[in-house]
Each structure stands twice: as C-alpha cells, then as structure tokens.
Write a structure and sequence with these properties.
single chain, about 55% helix, about 280 residues, alpha+beta, 4-stranded antiparallel beta sheet, globular, two-stranded antiparallel sheet
C-alpha cells in the first residue's frame, strides 16, 4: 500500500472560464455600483422617506420608510420608521456624527458622495455612472449572446432546477465544487441579477425622470407612479448590496486567489477529477 502523506494535494486542470467581455464588464459594474450606491444615498437624503402610490405629502399616509430626527426630553434623537414601526437609530440613521455637532441627515456622510449635503453633485455622479452601467450591461448581453456565455452559464436549464436543492445543501455545508460552468445556485442567482434586478433598477430609475415620463408615459403605469418606482428602486439597491455581500463571502470561501485569477486572466482552477479538454492547462 502506497503512502500519500506529504504529497501535494491533487489539482484539477485550469480552464478558460471567463471571456474578456465578462471580465471587463464585471469590473466596470463593480466601480459603477460603488459610485451609484453612495451617490444614490446622497440623493435619498434630500427626502429620506419612501412611499407607495402615485403621490406623497402631508395629506397622504402612504409612507413605508422614513428616516429623520425628533426632539425628545433628553435631546434630539435619530429615528427610523418602517411600516409604522419606529426604531431609535441615533448615531447611524437620522442623526449621526459627534455629539457636540451632530449631522441631521438620513444616511451619514461617511456613506454618501459627496460626504456633505450636495444634491446637485450627487445627481451628476449618479447619472454619469448610471449610463456607464447601462452601456456595460448592453455590451455584456451582446457579447454573452454571441459567445454562448448567456445560454451556457446564465440561463437555467431543467437539470439546474432539479439539482438546485442538492447544490443549496452543498453550499450550506461549504462543500464548494469548482467546475467548468456555474453551479445551479450560481446560475439562478446570476439570472435573477441580470434579468430581474438590473432591469428593475434601470427602469425604475428612468421612471423617476420627468423627461423619460414624458417620452415613455407607460413607465408610470407599469410601476404605479413615480413614488412607488422610487421605493422599488431603493429596495432593489438593498437587494444588490446583499447580493454583493454574499458574493464576496463566497469568493473568500471558494478560494479568493482562484476566483480573482478567473476574473483577471480568465483561467480558473477546477476541482480534481474534472475531465480535461483540448486547450486546458495542467
């Protein structure tokens, strides 16, 4: 019987997994979403309340989220109200900064661009990176359709749906497999991002523009008014942030060097036992 102790662990072949278009758009989206998030919070701070419906104001009681500050016997406090439930969020939302000179804004300046109140600059930054984001998405869709990435790795197939429970259990147990293509859970996640969340955040953003409403009035009908579109826009942003957090956690668990190499060079180290194909590296 041979002794395997001391031998290096077996490695699967290096496969060319990510095309240049996937890699370029991936990093462009990462940069765009960073600036879109922080500039979006700057815009949100101009009126840190979300509504459901076509209208809003003092005569309406349709707010679903409100962030602000209130006076109390012990002094001003930050307060956040979600669906009628009020929480003290002093130091984080509504009121933040040093006690001697607090800032009364929805989100603190540490997470907004610019860090001070400047709605005009926030809108310029937001729209600039918003159009770059849309252009990158168009390029990705076109390239992924032509090179087969969309059909092969993003669109879920019957076997992906069948294998989803098993793949979810493997992920929960941190049994991560490194294959040539995405796992069922990855496919469904990316499908939701590319075909649900990205289109939603773009269309709701356009719905909030009076100019786009004049050109495409049907946007208001689809989303039930500009205020509802603004709320959906905010919720989708939160979902994308959660996706990003989970994405980073999974990259760290799956092997950050291998995952980064895949998104920088295109080459990805698969699990041992993965069948070799022509063009694979050892």
């Amino acid at each position: 019987m041979t002794e395997d102790k001391g031998l290096p662990p077996a490695k699967g072949p290096l496969v060319y997994r990510q095309s240049i278009w996937t890699r370029l758009t991936h990093w462009v989206w990462a940069i765009c979403l960073f600036f879109l998030l922080l500039s979006g919070l700057q815009i949100f701070n101009a009126h840190p309340t979300l509504y459901i419906g076509e209208q809003s104001g003092f005569e309406f009681d349709n707010a679903v989220l409100s962030i602000g500050a209130v006076n109390t016997p012990s002094g001003p406090r930050g307060q956040t109200t979600v669906f009628g439930q009020t929480f003290d969020t002093t130091g984080v939302l509504g009121m933040s900064g040093p006690a001697a000179n607090p800032s009364f804004v929805g989100f603190p300046g540490a997470v907004t661009i610019p860090s001070f109140r400047d709605l005009a600059t926030g809108r310029v930054v937001h729209f600039f990176f918003g159009w770059i984001f849309v252009a990158a998405l168009f390029i990705w869709f076109l390239a992924s359709f032509v090179n087969g990435h969309l059909r092969r790795d993003i669109l879920p197939k019957g076997r992906d749906i069948i294998g989803l429970p098993r793949d979810a259990i493997d992920h929960a147990r941190l049994r991560l497999h490194h294959g040539r293509s995405y796992s069922p859970l990855q496919k469904l996640s990316y499908f939701a991002v590319f075909f649900v969340l990205f289109p939603l955040i773009i269309l709701t953003g356009l719905t909030m523009s009076p100019g786009m409403d004049a050109a495409w009035p049907w946007l208001l009908d689809i989303f039930g008014g500009r205020q509802t579109a603004r709320t959906i826009h905010f919720v989708v942003m939160v979902l994308l942030v959660l996706f990003f957090v989970v994405h980073i956690i999974m990259v760290l668990l799956a092997g950050p060097l291998n995952e980064l190499r895949s998104m920088i060079t295109g080459w990805y180290r698969t699990s041992p036992g993965t069948p070799r194909e022509q063009g694979d590296k050892p």
